[in-house]
Each structure stands twice: as structure tokens, then as C-alpha cells.
């Protein structure tokens, strides 16, 4: 599969999905855990939940309600972050569905959002395909 897509295209796809995810997070008014853009990951985006919202409880509710599995925080960020994966055999439609599930879950959990992360992510993907 990697040979058919060409490794450079795989890396480019992962970078596109990562940037679309980060744009979604910023549109929601949330923060990416990584503060230095030079250190951003192309495989996973850690999202800092706002004060008063437990990331683990959010992940559990999102899994139960929407069958969306999100990664957890580890160590000192346990319960404070959720991780959105965008690696491997993953395409634009799968990312759109993931971002939609996160946004629906955030709204259901009462997390105050600044805007639509789905719209921001899709706008980026639409112009960078």
C-alpha cells in the first residue's frame, strides 16, 4: 500500500490531516498541547480540554454515545487532554467524520466552543488536496 501511494504522498497526507485537525482545534477555541509549531506531530494531535472538563470522562462519553475512540493523556496530562489520531490508512472522509464526532461530543458535554472545527478542517482540506 505504501509503495502504491508513494512514501512522499503518505507523508504529505499525514501532514495535511494534522494541519486540518489543528485548525479544527483552534476554531473550537481549544489549544493544541504542543506549544512549538516546529514540534507538531503528523500522526496525533493532543487537545487540551478547558478547565472544569475532564478529558477522560469526555472520551468515555464520546465512545459510548458515538462509537468514537479517542486517545488519552498520559502522566501529568492524564484527564487533561484527548488525542485525535490521523495516521495510517486514513483519508479525508475519515478525518471529517472524526472531527464531526469530536465536535458533536464537545457540544453534548457542554464545552464552550468558539466556532465549528469541522468547517475549519474541511475548508483546509478542500484547498489543500
Task: Explain what the structure shows.
This protein has helices spanning 2-5, 7-28, 55-66, 92-108, 117-127; strands spanning 31-32, 44-48, 71-72, 81-85. The radius of gyration is 14 Å and the shape is globular. 28% of the residues are buried. The chain has a four-stranded antiparallel beta sheet with strand order 1-2-4-3. The chain has a single domain, classed as Aspartate Aminotransferase, domain 1, CATH 3.90.1150. The mean pLDDT is 94. By secondary structure, it is of the alpha+beta class.
Q: Give me the CATH fold name.
A: Aspartate Aminotransferase, domain 1
Which structural class is indicated by helix and strand composition? alpha+beta
Helix content: 40-55%
> How would the global form be characterised?
globular
Please state the average pLDDT score: 94
Number of domains: 1
Number of continuous helical runs: 5
Radius of gyration: 14 Å
How many extended strands?
A: 4
Widest sheet: strand order?
1-2-4-3
Classified by CATH, the class is Alpha Beta
* Separation, N- and C-terminal Cα atoms: 19 Å
Within CATH, the superfamily carries the name Aspartate Aminotransferase, domain 1
Strand count, sense and barrel status of the largest sheet are: 4 strands, antiparallel
The CATH architecture can be named as Alpha-Beta Complex
Would you identify the regions where 5 or more consecutive residues have pLDDT less than 50?
Answer: none
- The share of residues in extended strands comes to 5-15%
Q: Helix and strand string, N-terminal first?
A: HHEEHEEHH
